[in-house]
Amino acid sequence: MTMPKPSILIVDDEKAARYGMKKLLEKDNYLVYEAKDGADAIQIIKTQHPSLVFLDINMPQLDGMKTMEMIHAMKNPPLVVIVTAYGSEKTAVEAMKKGAYDYIAKPYEIDELRIIAKNAFEKISLQEENARLRLEIGRLEGLGEIIGQSEAIKEVFGRIEKVGTTDVTVLIEGESGSGKELVSREIHKRSKRRNEPLIIMNCAAVPETLIESELFGHEKGAFTGAAERRSGKFELANKGTIFLDEIGDMSISTQSKLLRVLQEQKFERLGGTETLAVDVRIISATHRDLEEEIEEGRFREDLYYRIKVVNIKIPPLRHRSEDIPLLVNRFIQYFSEKHQKRIASISSEAMKLLISYNWPGNVRQLKNVIESAVVLANKEILDTTDLPEEIKHPENTAVTVKNINYNLSFRDAKKILIENFERDFIKRKLEEFSGNVSRTAEALDMHRQNLQQKIRELNIGK
């Protein structure tokens, strides 16, 4: 299917001026319309819908400024470039304050005209892509804040829909920042308990000496500083859902007491003798490998099988890079409104850097990067200069043997290190054999199917 040519309208009362500009623009494969005055231009815009208008400022009857106001009042107006006489730049600047995209002064250089047209259509392309992504985001609103169209995240969506209406315990696994809490919220929203509380507790954020009190509550005088009775998370979550984030960080002794609550739905407050019965659904999450923790004696096997009736594994962001444009545009929209900035989109070069980055901090890290870029940006389209150094130059900050990101857990750093090695090694071999998978597999001493699976897992492009 042949793509339509990008279209331009030239508005000028001088026929010779229109003719000269039209000939130059047609050489760059633009479809060019002509209008002799403002009224003529409005009719052509309504019928032909050009994307860009070169509008002469000095015309009889309906001048360029008034015509531009009428254009901007239309639905989905084209971009407007003001054409002025030499020395009238002050008028052109005033027009830009009122919404003109750019201006060009007569007599103009050929290259100047071509560059303005090229830049204008790049902006139009970005706006169209942004609008498409917003529509795509709108279709994904059914799962709240969880955004994506990759097969990996669609599988998560499917599990949420299936388990949401049941009352089973769910274990959510995923790296830090991948969205485990968001998944728990979506499960709760789909459950019969949705009108009851969802109580969230991060087990890693509570000191070991206080975690039992946080979970089960305490009586007055139970320990130094316990000046009055306090209800715990389980009591507060009665009839609803409790989300135990980072359950893998819970001590063995607390795990034993939690197991009893799961088995009997009963507990006592710390320092108390009264047995309290609760009706609570439990959703747990961890970034740790609990099977490995069981082998090391740090997690109870019987508790593991209790909390893992259904398992949901959230893929890291580097394994679903096709979702990054959707996330980026959602965050730009959100933070532009939050911080009252006029950020329309992001350049294709900046987006490529975001897509190719490894994202050890996952969606949370991406969200923070976009918020920072929006706050600091001084133009309406984010570009590479608005991104942090580790994204512009990942080779200087990648997780390597000599340069480990010590903010990561040991498991996550090791996993990313191995993935980086596998991705780099396989990409180099594929390049060596011009993308031929069979010859690459033979050189790597791998089965072709196994190599294809690795290529998919590591998100290696063609």
Give your account of this protein's structure:
This protein starts with 6 loop residues before the first strand and ends in a 5-residue tail after the last helix. α6 runs parallel beside α7 (180-189), α10 (252-264) packs across α12 and α18 packs across α19 (448-457). Residues 397-402 have low confidence and may be disordered. The chain is 47% helix and 13% strand. β3, α3 (64-72) and β4 (79-85) form a beta-alpha-beta unit. The chain has 462 residues and is of the alpha/beta class. It has 19 helices and 14 strands. The strands form 4 sheets. It has a 5-stranded parallel β-sheet with strand order 2-1-3-4-5, with helices on both faces. The protein has a 5-stranded parallel β-sheet with strand order 7-8-11-6-12. It folds into 4 domains: 7-137, Response regulator (Rossmann fold, 3-Layer(aba) Sandwich), CATH 3.40.50; 148-313, P-loop containing nucleotide triphosphate hydrolases (Rossmann fold), CATH 3.40.50; 317-396, Helicase, Ruva Protein, domain 3 (Orthogonal Bundle); 410-457, Arc Repressor Mutant, subunit A (Orthogonal Bundle), CATH 1.10.10.
How are the secondary structure elements laid out?
Layout: E1 7-11, H1 15-26, E2 31-35, H2 38-48, E3 52-56, H3 64-72, E4 79-85, H4 89-97, E5 102-106, H5 110-139, H6 151-164, E6 170-173, H7 180-189, E7 198-202, H8 208-216, H9 233-236, E8 241-245, H10 252-264, E9 266-268, E10 275-277, E11 281-286, H11 290-295, H12 301-307, E12 310-313, H13 324-338, E13 345-346, H14 348-356, H15 362-376, E14 381-382, H16 389-392, H17 410-432, H18 437-444, H19 448-457
Parallel strand pairs: 1-2, 1-3, 3-4, 4-5, 6-11, 6-12, 7-8, 8-11, 13-14
Antiparallel strand pairs: 9-10
Helix pairs in contact: 2-3, 5-13, 6-7, 10-12, 13-15, 17-18, 18-19
